[in-house]
Design brief:
The protein is an alpha/beta fold and 290 residues long. Helices cover 59% and strands 9% of the residues. It has a five-stranded parallel sheet with strand order 4-3-5-6-7, with helices on both faces. Helix 12 links the parallel strand 5 and strand 6. Helix 8 packs antiparallel against helix 9, helix 10 crosses helix 14 and helix 12 packs parallel to helix 13. About 3% of the residues have low confidence.
């Protein structure tokens, strides 16, 4: 299990309560380790972490033994870290409006894949494909809303999975007015946090003056905007131009998302940086930090 999964299970579900050293490092007891091993075995058997995290250890152990005795061959197989398989499972669960199955797929991805791989192989293509299916009519608005709500909650559970230093640089993350799709912004905030930045996520569709006010209050070194849809909104151009005038010259404006290339001319005009993917976001944040 990766460190961020353990911390997410601790923070969101209260799965374990490790002690802390004077310097706030976590110290896990033998009992904590036993619980984490049992919880991982239970999730591999198809149990949702949210349903089992609070079970007493003896009850959890009995549940795991029951599950493994019922399907020993399947559970002895190695854990799959195939991103394509996990993505297909998540898409199928979305099509059935099966919240529990989608949650299990995301939990499995968080165990099997590193955080960057999970975002780039599962979360990003999942939301892109659901959005495309919604636009071509093969999925309904309800499917898109269900997946967005669950992914939003899932990403929120990862917030704080990495310790952030008090002196860490600040970044404000949001979407411009009229841009209601927020998953890209949430992913950007999570990526920034994993890179050691203190990320303040403001939600979607915020006017330029409100974004600038937050940037000033937080003393942010950068502001990240996600632009997805629509791709021909003149208001977005106006908002980007206004934001560039309201923030300090040393504040870097970063813009990404599937719709961002449509606004390339205004981005170049105001000196904003267009980031085509999350790898470029990580690289840019590292450069800004140095």
């Amino acid at each position: 299990m990766s460190a961020h999964v353990i911390r997410a299970w601790e923070k969101r579900y209260g799965a374990v309560e490790p002690k802390r050293t004077p310097t706030q490092r976590r110290v896990y007891s033998t009992e904590d380790l036993e619980r984490l091993i049992l919880l991982r075995r239970a999730t591999l058997a198809g149990r949702s972490i949210g349903q089992i995290a609070k079970l007493p250890t003896p009850e959890l152990k009995s549940l795991v033994e029951e599950d493994e005795s019922a399907a020993p061959e399947r559970l002895r197989a190695p854990v799959r870290s195939d991103g394509n398989q996990l993505l297909s499972t998540a898409l199928e669960a979305t099509g059935r409006l099966d919240t529990a199955a989608l949650q299990r797929a995301l939990d499995q991805a968080s165990i099997s894949l590193s955080r960057p791989a999970m975002m780039e192989q599962i979360i990003v293509p999942l939301m892109h494909r659901i959005g495309d299916a919604w636009r071509d009519g093969s999925l309904r608005v309800a499917h898109e809303h269900l997946a967005s709500a669950l992914v939003r909650s899932f990403l929120g559970s990862l917030d704080g999975a990495f310790p952030v230093a008090t002196a860490a640089p600040e970044i404000v993350v949001t979407t411009p007015s009229g841009q209601l799709h927020e998953i890209g912004a949430l992913l950007a905030a999570a990526t920034a946090a994993s890179e050691g930045w203190r990320a303040t996520y403001l939600g979607p569709s915020l006017p330029a003056d409100e974004i600038a006010a937050a940037v000033r209050q937080r003393g942010a070194r950068a502001v990240a905007l996600s632009i997805v849809y629509p791709t021909d909104d003149p208001q977005v151009q106006t908002e980007i131009q206004r934001l560039s005038k309201l923030v300090a010259p040393e504040t870097t404006i970063l813009v990404g998302g599937r719709g961002a290339p449509s606004y390339r001319s205004i981005l170049e005009a105001v000196g904003a940086r267009h980031l085509p993917d999350y790898q470029s976001l990580r690289t840019t944040l590292e450069s800004l930090r140095q």
